[in-house]
Amino acid sequence: SAVISQKPSRDICQRGTSLTIQCQVDSQVTMMFWYRQQPGQSLTLIATANQGSEATYESGFVIDKFPISRPNLTFSTLTVSNMSPEDSSIYLCSSIPVDTEAFFGQGTRLTVV
Amino acid sequence: AQTVTQSQPEMSVQEAETVTLSCTYDTSENNYYLFWYKQPPSRQMILVIRQEAYKQQNATENRFSVNFQKAAKSFSLKISDSQLGDTAMYFCAFLDTGRRALTFGSGTRLQVQP
After folding, report:
1. Spacing of C-alpha A9 from chain mean position
2. A34 in Cβ contact with A78 (< 8 Å)
3. How distant is the alpha carbon of residue A80 from its chain centre?
4. B103 touches chain A (CB under 8 A)
C-alpha cells in the first residue's frame, strides 16, 4: 500500500492569487495524477505527472493555469494560478504504485472569494 | 476514450437492507480494471472493491459484491446488510491499463436510513 500526504487540506484564497498544493508519497511512484472535483460533481483528471518530464494535460486544462512540478519520484505539486471563483473545487492527487490499486491524497478544498 | 455512466444520482436504503448501485461503461479495450470507490464527507477516496476484466468470477469483499457483465459492459455494486457508515458518495471507475489513469462516473449519493 501507499500513503499520500496532501496539503493544505483547505484554503480560502483571493481571486487573482495562486495556490500551490503539495503531495508527498511514502514510496517511489512513476506516475502521479491530479484531479479536480467541482462541487457535487465527479473527479475529472487534470494532468498526469511523470518525474523528469513535462506533465501531460487533459483537454480543457492548460499548463499556464495549472503548472505541475514533479522533482522526484515521491513528490509533486499542483499550482492553481490566477484564481477565480470558478476554480473553487476539491483537488486530489493520486497514484497507482503497485498492481492496480489507486491511492489518493486527502484532498484540498479550495474556495476562491 | 472510455466513458463511465452512473444513472442513479441518489439512492436511499434502510439499515440492514440490501441496495444495488448501477454502473455502465464503454471501452474498446479488452484488458482493464473496474472499481467502486466510496467518498464520505471527509473527502477521502476509499477503495471498496476491484474487478479485473479478464476474470469471470465476480469480486466480493465482505458485505460488498459486484455483478460484472463484460459483454453488456455493466458493473453494479451490491451492498448487503447496509450500515449507517455506508452513507457516502459512491463512484464507479475504469482503469485504462495503458494510461494508468482512472475515469470516474458521475457518482451515486447513498443515504442509509436508521
Report:
1. 12
2. yes
3. 9
4. yes
Closest approach of B38 to chain A, Cα-based (Å): 12
CB within 8 Å: A42 and B104: yes
Element (H, E) at B19: strand B19-21
CA distance A113 to B93: 32
pLDDT by residue, tens only, chain B of 114 residues = 789 999 999 999 999 999 999 999 999 888 899 999 999 988 889 999 999 998 889 999 999 999 999 999 999 999 999 999 999 999 999 998 776 789 999 999 999 999
CA dist., res. B108 & res. B114, Å (int): 19
How close A87 comes to chain B (CA, Å)? 17
Q: Say whether A96 and B105 touch across the interface (CB within 8 A).
A: no
The amino acid at B64: F
Q: What are phi and psi of A86, to 5 degrees?
A: -65, -15
**B37 → chain A, closest CA residue:** A102
